[in-house]
Amino acid sequence: MRTPSLVVNLKTYKRGSKEKAVKLAKRCEKLSRETGKNIVLVVQNTDIFRLSKKVSLPVYAQHVDSERYGSNTGKDIPETLKYNGASGTLINHSEDQIPTEKIEKNIKRCTELSLTSLVCVDTVELAEKVDSFGPDFIAYEPPELIGGDISVSEAKPEVLRKVVKVVETPVLTGAGVKTHKDVEKALELGSIGVLVASGIVKADKQKEAIKNLLRSL
């Protein structure tokens, strides 16, 4: 992932699924080219192949499992994710949390396959623990702020500053990011990008929402 970056998580929103996911992905690509700013798309695993063929932006999976080839029905192994076009993956999002030992296994498997690992954490303590596992990036996201109108850089600047200070891994900021001022503040506090979902995907005017956030990137 090139930094600073705007990472857009399409989740399973209706406006981030099927043909609407393609439209949003192309909109992001167009604005990325026009502005020269970095955008990464985090999509449903079933959309990885299709979207990676439609746009040149990095496409990340929303979930990965640490299992290897074998009898593992229902698992998404990194080999297959990469083959289908993923260049990275989210790990431990607040809506898909996993035990710490599995976070470590997932990071190691991603490293083996040269898949970028973006690990979500909700506390300073977890950030320090995850940092010791050697991920590529950490995203600090307090779950109570996700989907809200108050950004983490505004509500908990002191915590974000501490996360950045205590880890060696580059840190992104997520939760409640809606405006270019939120992005500007996050970067001032030491973040190298922002992780956004509803602020773009559910926006009435997606293009304007993307442009707004890119202003301060």
Notable features of this structure?
217 residues, alpha/beta, TIM Barrel, eight-stranded parallel β-barrel, 10 helices, 8 strands
Describe what this molecule looks like in 3D.
By secondary structure, the protein is α/β, with parallel strands linked by helices. The protein has one domain: Aldolase class I (TIM Barrel, Alpha-Beta Barrel), CATH 3.20.20. Helix content is 41%, strand content 17%. It is built from ten helices and eight strands. It has an eight-stranded parallel beta barrel with strand order 1-2-3-4-5-6-7-8, surrounded by six helices. Helix 1 packs parallel to helix 10. The chain starts with a strand and ends with a helix. 45% of the residues are buried.
Would you spell out the secondary-structure blueprint of this structure?
Layout: E1 5-9, H1 18-35, E2 38-43, H2 48-54, E3 59-61, H3 78-83, E4 88-91, H4 100-113, E5 116-121, H5 124-131, E6 137-140, H6 152-155, H7 157-166, E7 171-174, H8 180-188, E8 193-196, H9 198-201, H10 206-214
Parallel strand pairs: 1-2, 1-8, 2-3, 3-4, 4-5, 5-6, 6-7, 7-8
Helix pairs in contact: 1-10
